[in-house]
Amino acid sequence: MMSKLIFGRYIPGNSVIHHMDPRAKLLLSFYFIGIIFIANNWPTYVLLFAFTLLAIKLSGVKWSFFINGVKPLIWLILFTVVLQILFSASGGHVYLQWGIITISQFGLINGVYIFCRFVLIIFMSTLLTLTTPPLELSDAIEYLLMPLKVVHFPVYEVALMLSIALRFVPTLMDETEKIMNAQRARGVDFGEGNIFQQMRAIVPLLIPLFVSSFNRAEDLATAMEARGYQGGEGRSKYRILKWHGRDTWATVAFAALTVALVFLRA
Amino acid sequence: MAITFKQVEFTYQPGTPFETKALTDINVTIPDGSYTALIGHTGSGKSTLLQHLDALLKPTSGTVTIGDRVITPTTSNKDLKSLRQHVGIVFQFPESQLFEETVEKDIAFGPQNFGASEADALKLAAKMLTLVGLDSDLLQRSPFDLSGGQMRRVAIAGVLAMQPKVLVLDEPTAGLDPQGRLEMMEMFARLRHEQQLTIVLVTHQMDDVANYANNVIVMDHGQVVKTGTPQAIFKDPQWLAEHHLGLPKTTAFAQQLMARGMTFDEMPLTEDQLAAALVKQLPASMLGGGDHDE
């Protein structure tokens, strides 16, 4: 069940994308989400798709992972698309009008665009998480948050919390599976019956998870203190982030993409 | 209730880069009424096999027959409850499954899931608590206020309350003190006789295997490499070492005695057997040479 959740999972590899600086990957992924909104006609969307597919190709990760990344969100996407088709401003040829519902040529095209946007965003962010180990990502976030130190934002603490949270995701998953098994063996049916029965079935899972998480947090705090942890100020780093030529090239590629988009847009 | 594995294979997350094969061609029977020990070093597939005993996992290929139910790769997840009622599993560190407000409610949780009325389930809870050796005034306490050992017993009572025919124990004594260990193992042995249970014990404690089991399954690399009586399994220390397994203390002691010239008709497994074997030989050897120190 949980193994189907591909989003947010790292797949080890040796591609140029895997070796990029996590800061570059993170910033460029956000940048990509920004420039998707420049696109407003077919050539621009085709260009964006070509660019994304090229990046995926370079990463060497199987296509199926990206398709699986879209699957859990498909209903949300379709819901948005349908809303867009039914209620967007009319324009062009009107196919159907019934009360406030209007299906027009404009609406349909907009719906398709929105679908493309979602898919592009999911592909790109899936590419980021599939090719970047979570701890590298949190290093990148720590680095990028550094300017906030000026306003006394607790950057080190937030980064530490993030790394710990990420570190314990697999542990928590294992724990969940273990407790689910134990309760299933005691006759609980997860995911069956009506909504109230399902909600009730969650209680014997959630309470043990809370208890064990709190216990684990306490143990971890003790272990960290025993090893002399006193806050992040002045701590040296084990993983040092390095900006390489390929990161510069990737940035250049994104800049070129932006120029092309601005040039091609209607 | 017997459990039979036929050509069972199991693969975790097939079709992904995380694919791992955990079980290969398992053909084994856990006879009705037996006390079967499942041994093998870490990662040998014991836990995966264990989850097949209750259809928590279904084989990727092959069949598992539990009593009169046959579990195949295509068995529906629905309607497995009737099966799970008959197989109780005490997982490793079972205290982590406690969740109710009171000890009483937690023990009654299992039976109620299997259709017992609240009154019956609470009656069972009181009975099971005494069975696992705890005082009945703990019934109204929160399970989270108890000591680690008491929590373990409450969790075990919660599994016993389902009144299973097969009791599966995954290292039930891990982390307990020696006294608690002994009490717990004696309790399981007693329950087995009182309620005609079939017991499956997963353990790293060879002493427990020697003292309690009458059937042993040895696993390595996802395969069953040997089955037999404890006598047959512990006969060959070298073979055991090759599979990263040790000997019971008593047998190891007997081996050392053999290295110094003593002989045993049958390899002693328990302290009583060793003592009996020694009593038989001691007078003779003492009369003969007199060079054996007591």
Automatic annotation (TrEMBL), chain A:
The keyword Endoplasmic reticulum does not apply. It is a multi-pass membrane protein. Keywords: Cell membrane, Membrane, Transmembrane, Transmembrane helix, Transport. It is found in: Cell membrane. Its main location: membrane. Coiled coil: none annotated. Belongs to the energy-coupling factor EcfT family. PANTHER family: PROTEIN ABCI12, CHLOROPLASTIC (PTHR33514). This is Energy-coupling factor transporter transmembrane protein EcfT. It comes from Lactiplantibacillus songbeiensis.
Automatic annotation (TrEMBL), chain B:
PROSITE patterns: ABC_TRANSPORTER_1 (PS00211), ABC_TRANSPORTER_2 (PS50893). Its EC number is 7.-.-.-. Its main location: membrane. CDD domains: ABC_cobalt_CbiO_domain1 (cd03225). InterPro entries: AAA+_ATPase (IPR003593), ABC_transporter-like_ATP-bd (IPR003439), ABC_transporter-like_CS (IPR017871), ABC_transpr_CbiO/EcfA_su (IPR015856), ECF_ABC_transporter_ATP-bd (IPR050095), EcfA2 (IPR030946), P-loop_NTPase (IPR027417). One of its GO terms (molecular function) is ATP binding. It comes from the Bacteria. The keyword Nucleotide-binding applies. Residues 3-246 form the ABC transporter domain. Keywords: ATP-binding, Cell membrane, Membrane, Nucleotide-binding, Translocase, Transport. SMART domains: AAA (SM00382). Coiled coil: none annotated. The keyword rRNA processing does not apply. It is an enzyme of class 7 (translocase). It is found in: Cell membrane. Forms a stable energy-coupling factor (ECF) transporter complex composed of 2 membrane-embedded substrate-binding proteins (S component), 2 ATP-binding proteins (A component) and 2 transmembrane proteins (T component). ATP-binding (A) component of a common energy-coupling factor (ECF) ABC-transporter complex. This is Energy-coupling factor transporter ATP-binding protein EcfA2. It comes from Lactiplantibacillus songbeiensis.
